[in-house]
Amino acid sequence: MGAMSLDALVGLLREEAGGVPGLLGVGERLAGLVVEPSSLQPYLHFSRGRYTRNLVYRDARLEVLINCWESGAVSPIHDHDGQECWFSIQSGTFILENYGLVSGGLEPGPARLGPPTVVGPVGVGHVDFRCPDAPIHRVIAQQGPAISLHVYAGPVERCLVFDPKRQRCALQQLRYHSIFGRLLGRPESQPPLALV
Fold this sequence. Notes:
Elements: E1 2-4, H1 6-17, H2 26-30, E2 33-35, H3 37-40, E3 51-58, E4 63-69, E5 77-78, E6 85-99, E7 101-104, E8 109-113, E9 117-122, E10 127-130, E11 136-152, E12 158-163, E13 168-173, E14 178-179, E15 182-183
Parallel strand pairs: 1-2, 3-14
Antiparallel strand pairs: 3-4, 4-11, 5-12, 6-9, 6-10, 6-11, 7-8, 8-13, 12-13, 14-15
């Protein structure tokens, strides 16, 4: 698609989300898109050894985040609380592990996952889509610092985090590292984040 500013992209996504359940065409809009680096600047907050979740926009129908990843940062295995999610790589290289649910895992408690399907390494312009039928994945920043753009069809305030060794999952509330570019607390004082 080429390049556009983050504000312009959010404006288009807001128009598309108006009154429509889900966000039709988001994958096509994000395919190959590289957001103008200068428009990402207010949301680029990195933290050693982990990734950060930085809120760009949120309303009842749409949530847009910029996640910043150090090399080697790994998300937990998680779902997206029933929401559709698009993950667009803006810089760096990632490995994506997608998991099928064998049993349980629809609420906290017992959960058995199938073996992961590994995608990657993937880089700039790649778009991953998670939907209610295939929501579970883990993201690994293979080469960074890396930046990913996340679009959710509705805000995600919590998710299930999976522990395949114990064959269980637990509910985790989510938080942001920054909101509209403003840092929340000291990065080193915040516990690890749970969702991408």
